[in-house]
Automatic annotation (TrEMBL):
It comes from the Eukaryota. Belongs to the prostaglandin G/H synthase family. Residues 34-72 form the EGF-like domain. This is Prostaglandin G/H synthase 1. Homodimer. GO terms for cellular component: endoplasmic reticulum membrane; neuron projection. SUPFAM superfamilies: EGF/Laminin, Heme-dependent peroxidases. Its EC number is 1.14.99.1.
């Protein structure tokens, strides 16, 4: 087998190091196809590997903070930063001790300043404009501007590599079911060590399904959630037509139904949107929500109901304070307020770079 010989060669050259490589490559190019040098991931610190000539490569180290053939030499500022940067253990120690100090910070304006700093630093970890997607291992306008793509921070593994991970690992990825069972299958109940519960899982599921909506039609690399972020598309629908079906067009509100004196999402007969339900469920029993699949699980329905009630509650307050506003202005303003709440309820305020109000290209779940 060609690949067996090749992988034997790969481990051989890994052992004997770089000195042999040019000679080996020269020799092998006669009998074997040259391995794309980018499959070795030679560029460090997220430098971008670019093929040059037939067997060469260059690393684009732009804005990595490093330079050199493989982006391994730190620039002056990087050197200083690395020198001064405390270790994770030190961070952990400081954050879990000195309660009095944190109490002071928490009760003053420093808290907001600090939070803003933390969030900006984290937001800046995300490349902007966004870089790669599953079809483009190089920077392109298409990867940036075609928002149907999920984007990614790291380039995909080149197509012509010996293994799915480049040159390391097995040639065949392990069976997904085997992995899931090996790592996740439990044979007896184990309480969550942090004392959290199913509601948290449903919260996460509900929240993430506004921006993770893989397109069935276009394929795995594509999303239907073109807002790419916390736009509450799971409450308002991921397109204008769906939003209009869900809206009451009165006082900015969303359609709803009252069951036993309590407010719930409307039925699909009242708000004719596509919902995924088992075939036996008749239309008048299907609840119409922003997200197509939320009828499938009670926890998702529950959160959809809470947010629907919240939207209409905010509309009531807005209308009281702004009796002159149109339905459209009440709706749009309530949506902005709920997006703000949606980000905050997630546990911390959300930075602007993810799902911000300014269009930011196909940022996508890579940002999470
Ligand atoms: C009752 C529990 C759950 C069930 C039955 C369930 C079921 C599913 C199914 C069938 C898919 C589609 C897989 C595919 O297309 O190949 C999926 C995708 C997904 N699930 Fe779950 N899941 C559950 C819990 C969760 C939780 C707790 C989260 C928390 C974040 C979550 C997040 C996701 C995400 C982000 C996707 C990808 C969605 C997309 O890209 O379209 N799920 N889930
Ligand atoms: C860059 O990496 C390649 C492959 O790992 C190695 O052969 C080469 O010597 C490195 N160059 C420098 C300047 O470190
Ligand atoms: C920080 O202050 C807020 C009120 O501003 C309070 O709700 C919260 O419990 C405080 N956090 C801690 C850890 O003391
Ligand atoms: C985005 O790319 C996909 C795949 O090439 C293509 O089918 C789709 O039409 C593109 N969308 C836009 C808006 O160009």
């Amino acid at each position: 087998m060609l690949w067996q010989h090749l992988s034997a060669f790969l481990s051989f050259s890994a052992v004997f190091g770089a000195a042999l490589a040019p000679w080996m490559a020269g020799d092998l190019s006669v009998s074997l196809p040259a391995v794309n040098p980018c499959c070795y991931y030679p560029c460090q610190h997220q430098g971008v590997c670019v093929r040059v000539g037939l067997e060469g490569y260059e690393c684009d180290c732009t804005r990595t903070g490093y330079f050199g053939a493989n982006c391994t030499s730190p620039e002056l500022w990087t050197r200083l930063y690395n020198l001064l940067k405390p270790s994770p253990a030190f961070y952990h120690f400081v954050l879990t001790h000195f309660r009095w100090f944190w109490d002071i910070i928490n009760s003053t304006f420093i808290r907001d300043t600090l939070m803003r700093l933390v969030l900006t630093v984290r937001a800046n970890l995300i490349p902007s404009p966004p870089t790669f997607n599953s079809n483009y291992g190089y920077i392109s306008w298409e990867a940036y501007a075609n928002v149907s793509y999920y984007t990614r921070i790291l380039p995909p593994v080149p197509d012509d590599c010996p293994t799915p991970m480049g040159t390391k690992g097995k040639r065949q990825l392990p069976d997904a079911q085997l992995l899931a069972e090996r790592f996740l299958l439990r044979h007896k109940f184990e309480a969550d060590p942090r004392g959290t519960n199913l509601m948290f899982a449903f919260f996460a599921q509900h929240f993430t399904h506004q921006f993770f909506k893989t397109s069935g039609k276009m394929g795995r690399g594509f999303t239907k959630a073109l807002g790419h972020g916390v736009d509450l598309g799971h409450l308002y629908g991921d397109n204008l037509q769906r939003q209009h079906q869900l809206r009451l067009f009165r006082d900015g509100k969303l359609k709803f139904q009252v069951v036993d004196g309590e407010v719930y999402p409307p039925s699909v007969t009242e708000a004719p949107v596509h919902m995924v339900y088992p075939p036996a469920v008749p239309k008048e029993k299907q609840l119409a929500m922003g997200q197509e699949v939320f009828g499938l699980l009670p926890g998702l329905c529950m959160y959809a109901t809470l947010w629907l009630r919240e939207h209409n509650r905010v509309c009531d307050i807005l209308k009281r304070e702004h009796p002159t506003w149109s339905d459209e202005q009440l709706f749009q303003t309530a949506r902005l307020i709920l997006i703000g709440e949606g980000r905050r309820h997630r546990g911390s305020p959300r930075p602007t770079s993810h799902g911000d109000l300014v269009p930011s290209g196909s940022a996508g779940p890579a940002r999470l």
